[in-house]
Amino acid sequence: INLSLTGNDFWLFFGMKGKPVEVWPLRPDWVTVVPSATDFVGGYVVRVDGGSPKPFLPISASPDGTGILHFKRSNPWNYWYGQGPMEAAWGAVLTDEKATEYRHQFYANSARPDGILAAEGKLTQAAAEQIREWWRTAFAGPSNAHRTAVLDSGLKYQAISTTPKDSDVHTDRRLSRDDMVVGYGVPSDGK
User: Fold this and answer.
1) Helix-, strand-, coil-residue percentages of the chain, each rounded to 5
2) For residue 147, what are the CA distances in angstroms to 19, 103, 112, 135, 137?
3) Distance CA 191, CA 171 (A)
4) Whether 145 contacts 183, CB under 8 Å
5) How do residues 35-77 score in pLDDT, each as one tens digit?
6) Residue 99 to residues 18, 92, 162, 173, 177: CA-CA distances in angstroms?
């Protein structure tokens, strides 16, 4: 699964008398590749959960059968680490995450105001904040939706309409999803 997600899979072999006797898969975020000017990869440093670093040779260079075997996907940006499909589609993942957050806010609390309370005269900062807090407490959130407001002191409510662009996040999310799944070999639905 590490290879599929991150583009890297590290196996730590423990040897006895020159032959491996145990294999431990390692999380990719625990392993640092040590480049070498002569051998391309000089070794690996393993740091489990931020603990003390432990150096290991590549299994092919290990005299005692203890070392690391690194499987990796191709990566056009780095010779020592692979690139997973999700990393290649990371921009689409971030776009989808923001679209999901926006959509949630849009329906939960309307990510922007549905209307404006307009006063006939100039309000002090304290009065404006008091009215804003009263409105938020009385009408914000799904449980307060469609309640009737009673306005006094010359306040008038002016509705702001929702544009089709605001409610068409679905198209953006579908495009993001297609960008993500294509990296895993799943065909896009093309819609």
Assistant:
1) 35, 25, 40
2) 74, 22, 18, 11, 12
3) 9
4) no
5) 999 999 999 999 999 899 999 999 999 988 899 999 999 998 8
6) 54, 10, 17, 7, 11
